């Protein structure tokens, strides 16, 4: 068995000898790397970052087309992909134009309105139809808000 310092030197020498071909290649390539001009794209990728994609501008014509397609029951994700924007951005722009986004949960104000209408005697289906939600959605929102529901005959449970 060899002494520990000697074994350590042998191990370091062995590891360095394996690096020799890589070091020689690096020395040969180094001048070429330094000469190549650095553009914005190569600078960003050299730092390991992706280049930001330019965000497409949604024109009035594009928004009219998106609104027409959405009202024709086409999905938001398909329309957004065709326009080259995210679903969230397109949904926000459609909301700004007054379009009701499908499958969106009711706001707290809408839940309050559901509670007031239900307390006045309207059915779950009537409240849902008036506010643009399914009767099951109205029921779930009212239960979550702590409203006591009536049975199918209109009596308190």
Explain what you see.
- This protein is mostly helical and 157 residues long.
- 63% of the residues lie in helices and 0% in strands.
- The mean pLDDT is 81.
Top keywords for this entry?
63% helix, 157 residues, elongated, 0% strand, mainly alpha
Beta-strand portion reads under 5%
Largest sheet: none
Poorly predicted runs are: none
The overall strand count is: 0
Distance between the termini: 88 Å
Choose one word for the global shape. elongated
Write down the secondary-structure element order: HHHHHHHH
The number of helical segments is: 8
Write down the overall mean pLDDT. 81
Query: Which bin fits the share of residues in helices?
Result: 55-70%
User: What is the radius of gyration computed over CA atoms, rounded to a whole number of angstroms?
Assistant: 33 Å
- SS-based class: mainly alpha
Give me a quick take on this structure.
Helix content is 63%, strand content 0%. It is mainly alpha-helical.
Can you lay out the helices and strands and say which pair or pack?
Elements: H1 4-35, H2 40-46, H3 60-71, H4 76-83, H5 87-96, H6 108-119, H7 124-131, H8 135-144
Helix pairs in contact: 3-4, 4-5, 6-7, 7-8
